[in-house]
Amino acid sequence: MVNAELQDxxxxxxxxxxxxxxxxxxAAPDPQRAARLEEYLGEGRHGSMEWMExxxxxxxxxxxxxxxxxSVIALxxxxxxxxxPLALESQPEKARVSVYAQGRDYHDVVKxxxxxxARWLIERAPESELKVFVDTAPVMEKPLGEAAGxxxxxxxxxxxxxxxxxxxxxGAIYSTLDFAHDTPGRDLCGSCRACQDACPTDAxxxxxxxxxxxxxxxxxxxxxxxxxxxxxxxxxNRIYGCDDCLAVCPWNKFADAAHRHLKLAPRxxxxxxxxxxxxxxxxxxxxxxxxxxxxxxxxxxxxxxxxLYAAGNSGSAGLAPLVRGLCSDDDxxxxxxxxxxxxxxxxxx
Length: 349
Ligand code: B12
Ligand code: SF4
Ligand code: SF4
Description:
Blueprint: H1 4-17, E1 21-26, H2 31-42, H3 50-54, H4 56-60, H5 62-65, E2 71-78, E3 96-97, H6 106-124, E4 130-133, H7 141-147, E5 152-153, E6 159-160, E7 168-175, H8 194-198, H9 216-222, E8 238-240, H10 244-247, H11 275-278, H12 283-289, H13 299-314, H14 320-326, H15 332-347
Helix pairs in contact: 1-6, 13-15, 14-15
This protein binds cobalamin (B12) and iron/sulfur cluster (2 copies).
């Protein structure tokens, strides 16, 4: 067992580096966690994210990915906003970019900070080995975060923290060391169902379960083709991700933007951008504007597709000339979205 002093020092170092939450749990398999992943995949709730199915055994438990792992160090970094993320709901000609994507790519910021913490640990325990993860590896970061006590998986399925609400990015370090385990986070959702009621697309078949196929985050970021016509009006002006279920969580009252990691500050020009400007991006302009942003990942075509659905939903005749120009776009999915948007604008009262 790792001595208590090293474990305490590690928590302090995590905090010094900018993680607001740090907890420890076992790397051993947890049958309930594995069964719930199985159920999620079995019901097809992951949609076209085949990579979830492909590495199911590794995802189900830390030791499934790395048999030598003994402990998981779960970490949380705050990205608490200082403005109301829902404020642009009533301004249809503005584009809503979810809070998590308004600043620098969190993958880079969290990964870099995890690596700094990893270096610190290896210097003190050179005989040990570790691996660091954020988001992209087959790791179930949310249930591991809950098991390590940094919060609980709320009814919107994300980890909620008593101190930082729903605005935490998660990261994990798998280690060959035996750390003492923290007490798992206790579910404090109670009778609240604000997130369930706030979801514009009814993406929760029941509390604690998400059907990604209906989630705007999935539709605008992960989904490659055309979005089904009956879902398009529900996207509103959300062009990259969605914050609605997170933003209404009452535990956010304890979140404070002062605890946000310095490198996660939002870019001013993404706070209330005009749809009109985004509709004019060509490939080079898109890549230049979103350099260092997670948005760059989806490419110009999917981004403009999303902006066209939002333009259609705005019903704004002022956007019609730009939309009309995109009806003959080289990308058939963009052209389809433009035709849909134009029809919707024409039909608007
Ligand atoms: C795939 C994925 C998505 C998909 C699917 C999301 C999902 N809920 O599965 C999509 C694209 C929709 C998505 C959206 C978002 N994501 Co995402 N996503 C992931 C990813 C890569 C894997 C998640 C996963 O394993 N899903 C599989 C299912 C099985 O997991 P689950 O939701 O945990 O399912 C549990 C519950 O259903 C529960 N359960 C089931 N039945 C029951 C019954 C009861 C009674 C109870 C109590 C529980 C329970 O058990 C299951 C297993 O624990 C993680 C990163 C990672 N590697 O972990 C990020 C991650 C979850 N995403 C994150 C974020 C920030 C978002 C968005 C907020 C982004 C945005 N603003 O648009 C939205 C939030 C949408 C939402 N409400 O979940 C963060 C969440 C941080 C946090 N505090 O929890 C993560 C951890 C990335 C990170 N490193 O920070 N995401
Ligand atoms: S992110 Fe938006 S669409 Fe997805 S579950 Fe939450 S409220 Fe619903
Ligand atoms: S909004 Fe309510 S039900 Fe949803 S996660 Fe927060 S406390 Fe739980």
